[in-house]
Structures are given as structure tokens and as C-alpha cells.
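Might you be able to review the protein record set out just below?
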Amino acid sequence: MGFFNWAFSVKKLPIKFYLQTALCAALWGSAFPVIKLSYAHLGLETYGEKLLFAGTRFTLAGMMVMLFCRRSVWKSYVDAPKGLLFGVVLGQTFGQYIFFYYGLSVSSGALGALLNGSGSIIWVLLAPLVVKSAFPSGKQWLALLTCVMGISIAVYAPGVGSGNVTYGVVSFALVGLSGALGAIAMKQIAPTVGSRTVTALSLFIGGLMLSVVGSFEWRAFASEYSLATFVVTVYLALLSATAFALWNRLIELYSVNVLSAFRFLIPLFGVVESAIILKNETVGIGIVVGGSVLIGSLYAMSRLEEGTQDK
């Protein structure tokens, strides 16, 4: 009875928090199967072509977010603390997607989606040391470790078409580390510069950097560019602009601990959407059981947080 008394005695997070995190997760989750399909149908064979594809997507997304910034983006760039700004750029866009696009090329969409949740644990470990947020309580650690257990179960039996699991695990662990470092930098810079402006700069600058790194394959990329490539790029740019702008606003408003848990919704949505969209992938028993464990631990984590800002 003690557990149930605790679970229902904590103030719930506002309903808009659940709606916003679910929207971010659904958008980011759809990126896994869409990008996998893009590799096959758009003729993106080399790593350089994939980085150019990513670079054009994020550069366009940054420009989209700039349209909704209330103050001059250039003035914000000049005034912003450059160390923190480029911490967001390198972590949240450039570094994260250098590893993301490689990981997605060697493993399945469903497996990649699940492994992407590893950044939540790294985030919780680093944030108290860097931004002096509250350390997780014992019950919060239990919920987070249960999330990890759910992912471990899923990786053990991910299903058909999972690709190279070892390379996928390493790649998405680095994705998680980069994303966590970027989120911590965002937490520090957003109150002074504004999360929307930092999002625009991060996507735009990070996209340009990805394009430069992949530029050695520009001839092959340009020769295969088509209307379909343009449509997918615009969709993914809209996805990134919406999800990153909304998520970075949540980082500004809510605690690291609760957001780290709700990042696990991203892999859950990604697995479901990959299974629906990608015909050559199947969901194994591990993903079914592991996903159920994730849902339960997320619910427990949400009851531990009152939705207030970090002090």
C-alpha cells in the first residue's frame, strides 16, 4: 500500500507537459523510419551523402525557427556566450547527428530508436555536476534504472532486420552523450538568450557544419537529388524545427530529472512507427516486454515530479 499511497499523493504534471512531450516523441520517433526509407529510396549510399542530407535538413530547420524568433538572431548570436552556444551546436546538432546517421545506417530503425534513450541516463548523471540541479532521489533512480532494464530487454531480442547490434549500441551511446551535453548547455544558456533563438542558431550552424563535413560527396549527392529528396528534406526540417523548439522550451521550464525520463518516450514511439512503416523489420518479444517496462517506469517517474523549475 505504501507505493500506491506515494504514487497518488504527488502532484501531477500539467496536462500540456504530457501533450508536448508526446508530440516531440512522436515527431522524433517518425524520423527513424523516414530516414531509413530515405537511404533506400533516395539513393543515399555513402556516409558523406547522408551527412549532406542531414546538413541541408538542419540548415533549413534553423531558418524555419528563425522566422519565429522575437529578436534579431544575429544580435543574439553576437551577445550570446559563445562557449555555451557552441556547446549546444556541437552537442545537440553536429555531434549528435554525426553518430546518429551512422548508427541508423548500420542498425534497424526500431533498435536505433530504443538505443537513443541512453542519453537520459547520461543527462541525469552530468546535470547535477554542471548546472547544479537536484540529484535524483532514490525512487527516481529506481525509475531510471527500470528504464535501462527495459532497453536491455529490448536489445536482447530486438527482432528481424536489426543490423549490426554492436556498432548500433556504440553509435547511439555516443548520440546519447552528445545530446546530453547539448541539453545541459541549453539549460544554462536558455534563460539569457532564449530557447527558441538558441534552437535556431544550433540547427542552422550545426547543419552548415554537417554539410561541410559531407561536402566531399557533393557531386554524388547533387546528381541523385530529386523532388522526392526535397519533399523528405522539408518534412524532416519541419519535424526538427518543431520538435527542437518545443523540447528546448521544456528544458528551460522543467527539471532535468523528469525530462530525462520522458526522453524514453522517443524510443517507444520510434519502435512503434518503425514497425508500422518499415516492412523489412519486425518487433521481437524483447521490444514488446521492454517497451512495457518503459511505460511503467515513465509513469512512476512522472509521479515523482511536480513540474516546477529547478531552483
In short: The chain has one domain: 15-302. The mean pLDDT is 80.
